[in-house]
Predict the structure of Lysosome-associated membrane glycoprotein 1.
Amino acid sequence: MIPHIRKQPLPTGITFIVVLVATLHHSMTQEVAATTAVPQTSAAPATPASPGNPERGHYNVTNGNGTVCLMARMGLQLNVTFINTENKTVQELVNLHPNQTKPTGSCDKDTAILTLTEDKTNLIFSFSLNVTSKKYHLSSLALSAAWPDMAAPLNASGSGLDYLRGTLGRSYMCREEQNLMVDANFSLNTYQLQVQPFGLNSDQFGEAEECELDEDDMLIPIIVGAALSGLVLIVLMAYLIGRKRSHAGYQTI
Ligand SMILES: *[C@@H]1O[C@H](CO)[C@@H](O)[C@H](O)[C@H]1NC(C)=O
Ligand SMILES: *[C@@H]1O[C@H](CO)[C@@H](O)[C@H](O)[C@H]1NC(C)=O
Ligand SMILES: *[C@@H]1O[C@H](CO)[C@@H](O)[C@H](O)[C@H]1NC(C)=O
Ligand SMILES: *[C@@H]1O[C@H](CO)[C@@H](O)[C@H](O)[C@H]1NC(C)=O
Ligand SMILES: *[C@@H]1O[C@H](CO)[C@@H](O)[C@H](O)[C@H]1NC(C)=O
Ligand SMILES: *[C@@H]1O[C@H](CO)[C@@H](O)[C@H](O)[C@H]1NC(C)=O
Ligand SMILES: *[C@@H]1O[C@H](CO)[C@@H](O)[C@H](O)[C@H]1NC(C)=O
Ligand SMILES: *[C@@H]1O[C@H](CO)[C@@H](O)[C@H](O)[C@H]1NC(C)=O
């Protein structure tokens, strides 16, 4: 009878921990899912019909001698405001389709150009390298578009930009959606981006430098993990203290 009673606290305690941890884990993972889903749901109700996330393209620029000197992988969405054929100002989101987009460009010592052409759309990226500091960035973006619903062809460009900052020989990476403002009528949304405009010396991207958006994203699981292990520790200690007390209780009987 007594050994039976003595054994009882152990399975009850373990069950308690398992149930508590499972519950906490469940509620916390749900919280993580909810917070990561927020940017997508908040972006959806914006003005016109969203075309959905763009497909990710793989674009290369080759040197005169045939070696790849710029590599980019990204999904691209244009956010353009223009006057349409009905003389109305409209804002449209247009995805680039990788299988219909042709990359061209050039690579110099301190400037690299990537031009993407899809039908009546032309998008030019200019990257600049500071040879002294060995840092590069996207310094200008230019769009020209002659879509059927436009009253007149559109040219939009921005120079002196400071986006996609990386280090020579490394790639810049941003998995999260980024909104690059270019001018009042044009911004570029990038998805799942990895680019290296300088210092490619093999077929592979150099070590990736991640954007802050991605780092913030990784911080959440780390915090949850730390909180969870802290809670497990507290529960274990509480259990051990409880067992010690009940053990002392048996001895007095
Ligand atoms: C190709 O040309 C670049 C300079 O334009 C040079 O750095 C590179 O070594 C050349 N590669 C080959 C395989 O010749
Ligand atoms: C498109 O641009 C407009 C004006 O710049 C902005 O208000 C809107 O949030 C942008 N939408 C997306 C999905 O980027
Ligand atoms: C377009 O609208 C503006 C004012 O909203 C008007 O002044 C202009 O004449 C219109 N143009 C055409 C071609 O209808
Ligand atoms: C491009 O890809 C889309 C979907 O991925 C497909 O529907 C379309 O037929 C493709 N177009 C061409 C020209 O390959
Ligand atoms: C390049 O970087 C160096 C060191 O950070 C800086 O002093 C210089 O002004 C930069 N040059 C350009 C053209 O931005
Ligand atoms: C728009 O850009 C195209 C090509 O870049 C150029 O030929 C055209 O002259 C430009 N139009 C205007 C109005 O600037
Ligand atoms: C934006 O578009 C409007 C109407 O087409 C035009 O009047 C304005 O100059 C454009 N703004 C810029 C910065 O290009
Ligand atoms: C781009 O270049 C890389 C490295 O040479 C190669 O693996 C990849 O297939 C190329 N992609 C395209 C779309 O040409």
Notes: Confidence is low (pLDDT under 50) at residues 1-46. The CA atoms of residues 132 and 207 lie 20 Å apart.
